[in-house]
Design goal:
9-stranded parallel beta sheet, 10-stranded mixed beta sheet, 27% strand, 30% helix, TIM Barrel, alpha/beta, lyase, isomerase, EC 5.1.1.1
Length: 367
Amino acid sequence: MPYLDLIASPTLVINETITRANIQRMAEKANRHGKKLIPHWKTAQSHEIGNWAKEYGITEVTASSIKLAEYLCGQGWENIHIAFPFNVREISRLNRLAENQGISVQIVNTSTIQALADQLTQTVGFFIEIDAGYGRTGVATSDFQTIDAILSISKTSSALQFKGFYLHPGHTYYGVDKQKIHEESREALHILKTTYQSSYPNLVTRLGDTPGCAVMEEFGDVDELGPGNFVFFDLMQVQLGSCRKEDIAVCLAVPVVDINLERKEILVHGGGVHLAKDVLVNADGSKNFGEVVLLDEKGWSIPSHYSYMKSISQEHGIVKASDELLAAVKVGDLLGILPVHSCMTADCMGEYLSLDEKKIDHAEGCH
């Protein structure tokens, strides 16, 4: 039975071939530069896709929460890193997780490291998160006083093992000069490595962002790359120059429920609860919540004519349709929507349907 015959309501379709190609390309790039690829699994959040990644030499992953780390536990990962400033209210969960799984956490202040030093019963690694200009979270690059205090407290507990410095330059998503941001991030990690390596000879530095890792070719003495979105890519990454539309590995299949020829609009069952509400702005100022692709038994194709999701509410989506699309579509058909932000769309949907009719797991679909 063709996979399209299984779809009656909004469904997130995954192209395994494209997904594998994305993983392989990044793995080969990391290997070419002598770096270890430790992908951020907040995008895929899947055991099965994790098994694909292992085929390309990936042995560790990063999680966005302890909940995701628990989901990934027991899947053969050498280490799972929780790349979110650790929440001290979850120390008991961390202790349980660390009983059978290599685990590391992210530290941004002395209060958290003190709580861990006092309450950990299992061995846990930690990275100090560094802020080199993003401004969301992390210790400032020049704040050696806080870094030294965190390291000093960690020495009071045999359960804490310092692993190194982690930097996510998320402002590459907003900054106009990605090259400059990448160089500043790389230099910040270099300074910290040279400052602390004599005391911690095994420390590593990790740089994690898809725009930088996908485009840049100079990583200096950074040890590990930790991008996440590259597994699927999305329209935001296309706009940033990280990939082509042909590299996007997931699309949301949505049923057509009404057509308004006068307004040149198509109403689909697919809204904010399916796509999330990430948005791009077209050249004419209109909002773009996703772009239409044409579904077929082999997956989907990108049409020469342009149609896009102009607005969404909870369950509704309104497509601004090209004349060619209007002439070809009817009520009951399925359209594909390339997501603006694939991580959020996957999180909303909670599972994937492959082109060979298999359901593929996602952490949010396994409550």
